[in-house]
Amino acid sequence: WVLMVTAQTPTNIAVIKYWGKRDESLILPINDSISVTLDPEHLCTTTTVAVSPSFDQDRMWLNGKEISLSGGRYQRCLREIRSRASDVEDEKKGIKITKKDWENLHVHIASYNNFPTAAGLASSAAGFACLVFSLAKLMNVKEDQGKLSAIARQGSGSACRSLYGGFVKWIMGKHDDGSDSIAVQLADEKHWDDLVIVIAVVSSRQKETSSTSGMRESVETSMLIKHRAKEVVPKRIVDMEEAIKNRDFPSFAHLACADSNQFHAVCLDTCPPIFYMNDTIIGCVEKWNRSEESPQVAYTFDAGPNAVLIARNRKVAASLLQRLLFHFPPSSDADLSSYVIGDKSI
Ligand code: DP6
C-alpha cells in the first residue's frame, strides 16, 4: 500500500526583512520580520508526500530531479515531524500505522515550484513550509500552526511565515532553544485585498550569493547590520503593524521601500560587498510616486534582482504594468515577464 498527501503553499514576500542569524543551526534571527503571503494560485510550491512499507529510504525530487536529503535542514524537519507522528488509520485501504511504526517507515517527497527556484523569489520559503505542512498531515501531527512554523523555520527562516495567509510576523524570540521564534498572523488575506502585487521577473537565473551565506557574511562584517537590528527594525515593526492595521498605504509604502533599501545597504556594507538588486526599477517607481500626491506603488527586493511591486489598487496595478512594459520591454536577452498576483486579467 501507499498513503499520500498533497499540499500547496504560497511564497511570501517580506516587507520588513529578515537578514542575519543569532543561531545558524536552529535558524534564529537577529530581528523580527513582517511579510505578505501571496495568493496560492500564482507563486507556490506543490508537494506530495507518500509513505509505503516498500520504501527503503527517504527520498526527494525537486522539480522532477532527485535531490539529496542528507542536508541538516531536511534532516531536522523530518526528525521534528517524525518525533510528533501519531496513529493513522485509513479504513477504506485497510491501512493502520501506529506512532511506533513511523520510526521505521520511509517517505518519498515530490515537490514542484511554479516559479524560478533560488532567483530571489523565496522558493525555499514556500518549499519548506509545504514540506513541513504535508509531512505533518501525512503523519497526523497534532501541533498547532505556531509549532509547525517553528519546525519550518529550521528548514529556512522565511518558511515559517508561509504557514499563514495575509500579513504575518515572525517573532525573533529570546530563548536559546528557539521555542518562541515562531510566526503569527497579523491580519488575514481579506483584510487588505485592494493591494495587487506585481512581480517583475528580471532574471530567472540562480542568484550568485545565497541568502544563507550572504547574511552570514553580513553578520560577520557589516557594522550597519547591528544598528539596523537593534535600533531601526524594532521601531519599524511597530509602525508597519500599525500601517497594516489601518490599511494606511503611504506609511506602508514608505516603510517597505525604506526597509528594502536598508537591507540592500547592509549587503553593500558587507565585505566583500553583495549586489542583489536592479535599481532602474526603483528609480522609475520613486519618480512616479513623487509626481503624485501620495505614493501609488511600494517596491521591495529580496536576495535577487526581481522586483516585487505592491500597487495600492487594481487601477494603479494596470497602469504599473503598462509603465513596466514601456520602460522595460521584454527582449530576447532581458527576460522580463511579469506575474500579476490576485488578478490574472490585468
Ligand atoms: C532577503 O529564509 O532564504 O528573503 O534562513 O538561511 O534559509 P535561510 O534564509 P532565507 O532568507 C530570506 C532573506 C530575505 C528576507 C526575508 O524573506 O525576510
From TrEMBL:
Per the record, the GO terms for biological process are: isopentenyl diphosphate biosynthetic process, mevalonate pathway; sterol biosynthetic process
Q: Where in the cell is it found?
A: Peroxisome
* The enzyme's E.C. designation: 4.1.1.33
The answer to keyword Endoplasmic reticulum applying to this record is no
Tell me the domain of life.
Eukaryota
What keyword terms does UniProt attach to this protein? Answer: ATP-binding, Isoprene biosynthesis, Lipid biosynthesis, Lipid metabolism, Lyase, Nucleotide-binding, Peroxisome, Steroid biosynthesis, Steroid metabolism, Sterol biosynthesis, Sterol metabolism
Q: Can you give the residue ranges of the Diphosphomevalonate decarboxylase-like N-terminal domain?
A: 10-183
Q: Name one GO cellular component term.
A: cytosol
Name the reaction it catalyses: (R)-5-diphosphomevalonate + ATP = isopentenyl diphosphate + ADP + phosphate + CO2
Q: Where is each Mvd1 C-terminal domain found?
A: 197-346
Q: Which residues form the signal peptide?
A: none
Predominant place of localization: other
MF terms in GO: ATP binding; diphosphomevalonate decarboxylase activity
Top EC class of this enzyme: lyase
What this chain does, per the entry, is described as: Performs the first committed step in the biosynthesis of isoprene-containing compounds such as sterols and terpenoids.
> Which family, according to UniProt?
Belongs to the diphosphomevalonate decarboxylase family.
Q: What is the protein's name according to its record?
A: Diphosphomevalonate decarboxylase
Organism from which the protein derives: Actinidia chinensis var. chinensis (Chinese soft-hair kiwi)
